[in-house]
Amino acid sequence: MPYLSLAAAISPTAWEQFVQYCLIGLTTGSLIALIALGYTMVYGIIGLINFAHGDLFMLGAFLTLTLLGAMGMVGIPTTSGGAVVGLTLCFLIVPLFCGGLNWAVDRIVYKPLRNAPKLAPLVSAIGVSFIFMNLGLLWGGAADVNFPTLISSHNLMGDSAIQFTLKDLLVVLITVPIMVGLTVFVKFTKLGKAMRAVEQNPVAAQLMGINVDRVIGATFVIGGALGGVASVVYAVYINTISFQMGFQNGLYAFTAAVLGGIGKLPGAVLGGLIIGLARSLGSAYLGEKWTGSLVFTILIAILVFRPSGLLGRSVQEKV
Which of 15, 40, 54, 244 is 20 to 30 A removed from 200 (C-alpha atoms)? Predict the structure, then answer.
């Protein structure tokens, strides 16, 4: 019997569907990874699981809608040059807002609890999350809000059954350079080296002349800005936002960070892509109702064999 490739063994329609589901999974996984980077940066520096990060992402989405409405961008044609200008301003303003708000929360809430038992800042982060969620409820209301369609859904693949639109291209063009740039920043810049020093030993870093509080503040700003960028991309891609969107997306982002090895930037990206693929393929072949179970089954299975995550390292604590 002659050898059959996978593409030949599966009918063309089924193969195209599988590729389509993978593309959807990689796109949504990139969004999850972008949010997860904010989680993993803060945890890597001070060991805090910032549960408010997902709701900060939600506030960024509502600010995006407010800015577009103020600029008269709601309801304009997708081919309008004004849409490009509006989105450009959003990509400048929303990350600044989210980064500044994240920095303010650190200064007001987390900084006084630096030397407190770890449970205190954790509970405080949950409290900040509820505050942000209620702000989102006041800002946008309880119902889902339709986001204006600013980018065409024209298929860049032509007449192919596989869909790859300008929205998908936007996600790739935004998230991939940010992920690469952030990795280069942490490895080669002065501030990035200071972050790694604080991550390894805050006391030794301070003795070497590093301003630990400034480094932690910069980490919160960068993490918040990443959430702001993710909120703009998410709103444009999904076209629906709500005050509860931060909880679900934040949960998946935190799961991605743990799955890849929390505190590791490449791990957050890898975890996000795995979860995106699991959600897309699981929804297609098992049903939407089983998607959450599949994601967390994968998480548990991996952590059983690698408790520190896929790219994390097991570190023995001295007592």
Answer: 54
